[in-house]
Write a structure and sequence with these properties.
The protein has helices at residues 49-66, 82-85, and strands at residues 2-7, 13-16, 28-33, 38-43, 71-76. The chain is an alpha+beta fold.
Length: 88
Amino acid sequence: MTEALEMRDDGTSFKIELTRKALSPEKVLCIVDSDSRSIYIWQGQKADTRKRFVGAHTASRLRNEQGPHFKVQPVDEGHEPPSLLRLL
C-alpha cells in the first residue's frame, strides 16, 4: 500500500493521489510505501525551505506511527531511486 501527502507552507499536509504529475518542482511530498517499509521525502528543485522542514517533520511523525522498521529516505527531484519510480 502506498500513501502520499503534499506539504503546505502553513505546516500542514494533505493526502494526494501519487502520479508523475504530482511531482512538480515547487512541491514536497511524503510517500509511504508499506511494501518496502520506506518513507520517501520527495523534494522538488524549487521547493521552499518551509515545505522541506514540514516534510522532514511529517516523515518523522509517520515513522513513529508506522514503527521503527520504516526507513526515511530524502529524495531530490531528478535523483529518484528505481524503487520510488515504480510506485508512480
